[in-house]
Design brief:
heterodimer; A: about 575 residues; five-stranded mixed β-sheet; 24 helices; globular; B: about 160 residues; alpha+beta; four-stranded mixed β-sheet; 7 helices; 4 strands; elongated; binds flavin mononucleotide; binds iron/sulfur cluster; binds FE2/S2 (inorganic) cluster
């Protein structure tokens, strides 16, 4: 095999300058006359945020470079490609290894390794073998295998994938649809995007197999419009799969035909909910419908339809290839396989991490995550599951990440949002943040969601502004219970979770806001005094230089002083001061 | 100004036979004209034989569609969870204060239209903003000032 140079070029790689890095590698290979010896591969993102990552693989040996700037490329080629000595100053450090050790990469296996725009690279890793294996089998056999594997949906609700397929398979209808949910609504999760950008064919293969199993000849991928690169790569992938006969009429010379197209979303979180998503594909407002009837019975244009999440579908080829037993051996007794999480917030290594189910929250943060970003800060909470999930305190860090254990805490598995918070994050503000999100995204069809959430938001807003009353907490609790049991769709049903969990585990913080008008995290601006604490100030003047409006008076040897008339409450000085001297 | 009827008709024709055509059609219109113009809605209503109100029903439901022309540069300020935890709200507030503009509005010089988005997918570089198609991570108030100045100089 030829030697390879891999450049990480998904959305995050490209935003860090991967495009330019690739161009320079190209001209360097030409200049050094090495084009015949190296394959320059533009891959999707590997999942770790290190600006541009570059791997050079020579004779099976791999060296990884991180934070590669366009100006570094020449140094790398001169030393590594010409003299065969890696440019040591630029190679990835210990935290890179720390991040990838303790991961079990199944659906992310190809991300960062292959060129997603070249179907031959996917085929080279065993791509479409699962399809070849599946097509001669009776659909029931495939459904049994998926059922036996224990795979549950990765889009949030965690329903058994095999069972869902079986329901739809049993429906008698000449027309059925297979839909992939790539709407990825959790505002802190991006694994679906990375899979689509880095390994689109795996999702397509999963969809074809699913279509065959349920008896659908037509499918849609409903993708967020905010993901232009994913859409572009999907389009190319679809075209290539068609050309090779994996899509279209008489797939692999069988009598099974399957057509696949992309529908772009238009910016509505509720469209991630399956009935709303179907309405949106039909070209209408994306409002949810009461279930039953379930989409498996009456879905797109009234026909039986299966909707599966991107990550769920990316698992399918692996299960067919390696067998249900292989899959169910990964994970915990009750939750099988792996799950991808988007690790972010106050953690040292941020990015996408794929771990076996059953891993504890702690091992995720201190293993791949490498612990907290700053040694001085203390972990306060972990938010799992986004707007439908919850905030868990440090005392629950030993909770294993599986469906049942997480549900017991009041959080949910969700789609993979995982945000680490320290003492600078206010829990009341976080509850308000998520509620603000769900209020804005409520479709307005049902009263509990439209009005109830709004009322809750107003009360939280009042508390963060120092106008809270003790009875507000009982009111919030009561509202949560009512909305949970009466809202029409999952958006409303789960929206109280961030409030419920913060109330349960961080009640003291709510009380501080209400009784003492204090926000310890200095997040709620209305409760912040914007004063320098004389005893703590070391008179360094850093705050003064950070202020964009010149509101801080300081000169050498003098305690800084904030002019409240001028101050626009931007909080820049709080971030600048290393001594927590501003309150 | 009238829209270029031929182009608009071409877009409509491209989608006319499609199932669930309205949303992709509006998306193409917006790409072409920068926003959904009232005369375009009228034309779609005529050609597809659906009432205008049904089209507006869809336009107003989805955050993507705008009915006002955008400024020269769109500033997408990430308000996803990671960015929020890392100070994204302060960045948004600062941008609005310093540009003297409301969310989804356009500055009086027509240069900038700031809007909020949920997660730009680069949470490791939070707080993040995106101007047109360029991404800026690890934002601070100072960095925002420099970035905006850069755009002012480029156009000014
Ligand atoms: C408000 C709301 C938003 C949702 N957003 C998504 C999403 O962005 N992506 C997704 O796959 N599922 C989402 N879901 C879950 C879907 O309704 C559905 O359960 C899922 O797509 C089924 O696929 P799975 O079984 O493979 O997980 C959402 C649900 C609700 C109630
Ligand atoms: S940055 Fe902090 S320590 Fe330094 S002058 Fe300002 S308040 Fe004092
Ligand atoms: S909050 Fe902002 S405006 Fe106010 S003093 Fe601090 S840096 Fe200056
Ligand atoms: S509008 Fe969706 S739950 Fe109420
Ligand atoms: S939350 Fe801002 S980039 Fe993800």
């Amino acid at each position: 095999m030829k030697n390879r140079i891999l450049v990480c070029a998904g959305t995050s790689g490209l935003s860090a300058g991967a495009g330019e890095v690739i161009e320079i590698f190209k001209s360097e290979l030409k200049r050094l006359n090495l084009r015949g010896k190296f394959n320059l591969v533009k891959t999707g993102d590997r999942g770790l945020f290190r600006d541009v990552l570059v791997d050079i693989i020579t004779d099976g040996k791999r060296v990884t470079y991180e934070h590669v700037k366009p100006a570094d490329v020449k140094k790398i080629t001169e030393s590594h490609l010409v003299k065969n000595t890696p440019a040591a100053a630029l190679t990835a450090g210990k935290s890179y290894e720390e991040f990838f050790a303790n991961q079990t990469r199944v659906v992310l296996k190809n991300c960062g390794e292959i060129d997603p725009e070249n179907i031959d690279e996917y085929i080279g890793t065993g791509g479409f073998e699962a399809l070849k294996k599946a097509i001669p089998l009776p659909p029931e056999k495939i459904i049994d295998e998926i059922k036996k594997s224990g795979l549950r949906g990765r889009g949030g609700a965690g329903f058994s994938t095999g069972l869902k397929w079986e329901f739809c398979h049993k429906e008698k209808s000449g027309v059925k649809y297979m839909v992939c949910n790539a709407d990825e609504g959790d505002p802190g999760a991006f694994m679906d995007r990375s899979i689509l950008e880095g390994d689109p064919q795996s999702v397509i293969e999963g969809m074809i197999i699913a279509g065959y199993a349920i008896g659908a000849n037509e499918g849609y991928i409903y993708c967020r419009a905010e993901y232009p690169l994913a859409i572009e790569r999907l389009n190319k992938a679809l075209k290539q799969a068609e050309e090779r006969g994996f899509l279209g009429n008489n797939i692999l010379k069988s009598d099974f035909s399957f057509k696949l197209s992309i529908k772009k979303g238009a910016g509505a979180f509720v469209c991630g909910e399956e009935t709303a998503l179907l309405a949106s594909i039909e070209g209408k407002r994306g409002t949810p419908k009461p279930r039953p009837p379930f989409p498996a019975q009456k879905g797109l244009w009234g026909k039986p339809t299966v909707i599966n999440n991107v990550e769920t579908l990316a698992n399918i080829p692996h299960i067919i290839n390696n067998g249900a037993d292989w899959f169910s051996a990964i994970g915990s007794a009750e939750s099988k396989g792996t799950k991808v999480f988007a690790l972010a917030g106050k953690v040292r290594n941020t990015g996408l991490v794929e771990i076996p189910m059953g891993t504890t929250i702690k091992n995720l943060i201190y293993g791949p995550g490498g612990g907290l970003k700053s040694k001085r800060s203390k972990l306060k909470a972990v938010q799992i599951g986004g707007p439908s999930g919850g905030c868990l305190p440090e005392t629950l860090l030993s909770t294993p990440i599986d469906y049942k254990a997480l549900a017991k805490t009041g959080a949910i598995m969700g789609s993979g949002g995982f945000i680490v918070m320290d003492e600078k994050t206010c829990m009341v503000d976080i509850a308000k943040f998520f509620l603000g999100f769900t209020v804005a995204e409520s479709c307005g069809k049902c009263v509990p969601c439209r009005i109830g959430l709004k009322r809750m938001y107003e009360v939280l807003d009042k508390i963060t502004k120092g106008r809270g009353e003790t009875r507000d907490l009982d009111f919030l609790k009561e509202m949560c219970e009512t909305i949970k049991s009466t809202a029409l769709c999952g958006l409303g049903n789960t929206a109280p979770n961030p409030v419920l969990t913060t109330l349960k585990y961080f009640r003291r913080e709510y009380e501080e806001h209400i009784n003492n008008r204090v926000c310890d995290a200095n997040t709620c601006v209305e409760l912040v005094k914007f004063e320098v604490i004389e005893e703590k100030c070391v008179k360094c003047g850093k705050c003064s230089t950070s202020c964009p409006v010149g509101a801080i008076e300081w000169e050498k040897g003098r305690t800084a002083e904030i002019n409240k008339e001028k101050c626009i409450k931007c909080m820049a000085c709080f971030a600048a001061c290393d001594f927590k001297a501003i309150k | 100004m009238n829209i270029d009827i031929e182009k608009a008709e071409k877009i409509i024709k491209k989608h006319a036979a499609e199932k669930g055509a309205l949303i992709p059609l509006l998306q193409d219109m917006q790409t072409e004209y920068g926003y959904i113009r009232a005369d375009a809605v009228k034309l779609i209503a005529e050609k597809l034989d659906i009432p205008s109100v049904e089209i507006y029903e869809v336009i107003t439901f989805y955050a993507q569609f705008r009915t006002e022309p955008p400024g020269k540069h769109t500033i997408k300020v990430c308000q996803g969870t990671a960015c929020h935890v890392m100070g994204g709200k302060q960045i948004l507030n600062y941008i609005l204060t310093t540009l003297k503009v409301k969310e989804n509005g356009t500055t009086t010089d027509g240069l900038f239209s700031p809007e909020r988005v949920a997660c730009l997918g680069c949470c490791g570089m939070a707080p993040a903003i995106m101007i047109d198609n360029d991404f800026y991570g690890n934002c601070t108030i100072q960095k925002v000032d420099e970035i905006l100045d850069g755009y002012r100089k480029k156009t000014g």
